[in-house]
Structure formats: structure tokens, C-alpha cells
Amino acid sequence: MLLHIVFLISLLLSTYSNASVQDFCVADLKGADGPAGFPCKPPATVISDDFVYPGLAEAGNVTNIINAAVTPAFVGQFPGVNGLGLSAARLDLGPGGVIPLHTHAGANELLLVIHGHITAGFISSGNIVYQKTLKKGELMVFPQGLLHFQVAAGKKGALAFAIFSSANPGLQILDFALFASNFSTPLVTKTTFLDPALVKKLKGVLGGSG
């Protein structure tokens, strides 16, 4: 029995020592995205710029219905995060701006406020709301898959950065799923208890059909 255990340990150590260890896997965005991420670029073609993303330096355009903008640095924009289990986004909120109720099916989120004040919160699966008005330098975490929101507090705008525990966290905004899609008005009414006239009005605002 002892010999069998020694043999198994030596086999595992041998397998581990001979395993191919890869420092990184910069995404080849021409390939297909799968559960393990994108395929890797050949190491010979990887350059320093693959690990730098300048896209969050510029403010997003908040001239829209929500008076806010989300600028992502997910694997699709930043191939260097492929396989690393993290990504980021910039949140620009104009006065009264709002990031409506939404979920990230694939990641937890950590929000850091850079300036201004943001009222943020999430709803647990027990239908309890956890919310807080955050100021500069404060962090809030949003557990994976739970509905959450961010709203500019006060009369000024705000800026925050979000860090996600996935290179591709996913995003679904509840209002857009209901009222910017072809989810039929009768079914939206039936499943949400909203008045049909209100559903049609919101579909008209957000461009939905059905």
C-alpha cells in the first residue's frame, strides 16, 4: 500500500513538473470565444501594447436617455485580460445619471468612486436591498448575477471604475431586456403585472416591439 502511495505521488509530481506553464494568453479575437476564453495569439506576435488599454482615459458620452455611459475594457476591447479572470469598465454619470438595474451573469463587481457621489445597491435573492451612497475613494461590491444599480447622487455628475472577476462578465440591463426587445406586450404585462399602456409607452421610448 505504501509503495502504491509513493508511486502516485511521484507520478503527480512528474506530471506537474512536465506541465506546460503559460504566463499569459493574449486573445486572438479572430478566433471563437469559448468557455475557456479566446485562443491565444502566438507568443512571437505579442507586444507590450497588448497589455495596455488606453480606452478608459476618455470620458464617455452621457448625452442619452440615462445620462450616463459605460466604457468597457472586457476581453473584446482589451485582449490582454484573456484568461486572467478580470476586466474593468469606466462609469461616467452626468447629473441625475443612472445605470439602470442590470446583472453580470459571469462576474462579481467591485466599484470604486473616483469623484462625485453615487447611490449604489443590489437586491439579494431574498429580495433584500443593500444600498449606500458612496463618496470618493469608497468601494462597494456586487455579487455575481444579482440585480444592481448606480445613480449619481446630488446635483453633480460622478465618475467610477468597476473591476470584474471575469474577462467577459456579461451584461443584461433589465429595462432594455423588457422594453427594447421583441418581448411581446401581452407577455410583459402578464409576467410583470405592469399596465399594458405603460408597457407600450416604455417600448416606444426604448425602441422595443411586440
List key phrases describing it.
alpha+beta, Cupin_1, 210 residues, Germin-like protein, single chain, five-stranded antiparallel β-sheet, Jelly Rolls
How would you describe this protein?
- With about 210 residues, the chain is α+β, with helices and mostly antiparallel strands.
- It has two domains: about 120 residues, Jelly Rolls (Sandwich); about 30 residues, no CATH class.
- Helix content is about 20%, strand content about 25%.
- The strands form two sheets. A five-stranded antiparallel β-sheet has the order 1-2-9-4-7, with no helix packed on it. A five-stranded antiparallel β-sheet has the order 6-5-8-3-10.
- About 0% of the residues have low confidence.
Write a brief caption for the model.
Helix content is 20%, strand content 27%. It has 210 residues and is an alpha+beta fold.
What is the end-to-end distance? 69 Å
Largest sheet: 5 strands, antiparallel
Uncertain ranges: 15-19
Instruction: Indicate the radius of gyration in whole angstroms.
Output: 22 Å
* Strand residue percentage: 25-35%
Instruction: Using the coordinates shown, work out and report the CATH topology of the largest domain.
Output: Jelly Rolls
- Please state the structural category: alpha+beta
Strand order of the largest sheet: 1-2-9-4-7
Binding site for oxalate: 104, 109
Organism: Flemingia macrophylla
Protein name: Germin-like protein
Domain Cupin type-1: 54-200
Question: Secondary structure elements and their pairing?
Answer:
Elements: H1 2-18, E1 68-73, E2 87-93, E3 98-103, E4 109-115, E5 118-123, E6 129-134, E7 139-142, E8 148-152, E9 158-164, E10 172-173, H2 174-179, H3 185-192, H4 196-206
Antiparallel strand pairs: 1-2, 2-9, 3-8, 3-10, 4-7, 4-9, 5-6, 5-8
